[in-house]
Design goal:
By secondary structure, the protein is α+β, with helices and mostly antiparallel strands. Helix content is 32%, strand content 17%. It has seven helices and ten strands. It has helices at 21-26, 31-55, 116-121, 151-156, 158-175, 202-213, 220-225; strands at 5-10, 71-72, 76-81, 87-88, 108-113, 126-129, 135-138, 142-146, 180-184, 237-239. It has a seven-stranded antiparallel beta sheet. The chain is globular and about 60 Å long.
Length: 250
């Protein structure tokens, strides 16, 4: 099972800033961001096309879109009801059933839509869907990129890493983040960073991961060494972009 890549970016957005955030991401004032997303999409498509060809996959190759707007995913939550019209969990055991009875499924569901501001007031996160399947999960003080690529691909493949670092440098500049934290997901220690992004600032997230997982790798190159010739899945890196020139190609 592959290890996915996550990047955590700080921000100082207020509730009043939320409605206009996608427009800011789509604006012409962020050309490096748009160019980097295109470059990343092309690299990701080349990588996936090569994999399909090498493995003679029966599934059709579906390239990711190079262009597209950043838009909010409609936030909300699903309410579940049993056969008597009572609210219940997605899978439940009725008190009227004998001990050991099968778990029941709800008889009906209703989707309750919410505004972005309502979700924010509940201290929950809201998701922005972006081009190239780059999705952002926005919480109180942090934004986490979800589903961009695999951890190994980000570490070892420059045509994936470089445009993604340009994306993060652009987002960090736009949002005022002093650095970005790169972590693997799954059960590896640094993945605990995501657990505290709901309320913590980027500095607090960094301190939490350092406390529980030790110091970050001194460089991305150090993580690539890994074990047995494979990139390390149990490390993380804090990127302040001091060594990075991130202009993406057209």
């Amino acid at each position: 099972m592959g290890v996915d890549f996550e990047a955590i970016i700080g921000h100082s957005l207020s509730a009043a800033d939320l409605p206009t955030l996608p427009a800011r991401l789509n604006a012409d004032a962020t050309p490096d961001l748009a160019r980097a997303v295109r470059e990343f999409a092309r690299a990701k498509n080349r990588r996936h096309a090569a994999w399909h060809q090498a493995h003679s996959s029966d599934e059709p190759f579906q390239p990711v879109a190079e262009e597209g707007d950043w838009v909010y995913q409609q936030p909300g939550y699903r309410i579940y009801y049993d056969s008597e019209g009572r609210e219940c969990s997605p899978y439940f055991i009725s008190s009227e059933q004998p001990l050991g009875a099968d778990i029941l499924k709800p008889a009906s569901t209703v989707w309750q839509e919410m505004t972005v501001e309502e979700v924010w007031a509940k201290a929950d996160g809201v998701e922005i869907e972006g081009p190239a399947r780059l999705n952002l999960f926005v919480t109180r003080h942090c934004i986490t990129l979800l589903g961009g690529t695999r951890w190994y691909a980000f570490l070892a493949e420059q045509d994936i890493q470089h445009p993604l670092r340009t994306v993060f440098a652009s987002l960090g500049s736009l949002l005022g983040s002093p650095f970005v934290i790169y972590v693997p997901d799954s059960a590896y220690c640094p993945s605990i960073a995501f657990d505290v992004t709901g309320e913590d600032t980027i500095d607090e997230v960094s301190a939490y991961v350092r406390q529980h997982c030790g110091p970050p790798a001194p460089s991305l190159a150090e993580l690539v060494k890994g074990h047995d010739g494979r990139p390390a899945a149990d490390g993380y890196f804090i990127d302040d972009f001091a060594d990075f020139s991130g202009a993406a190609s057209q």
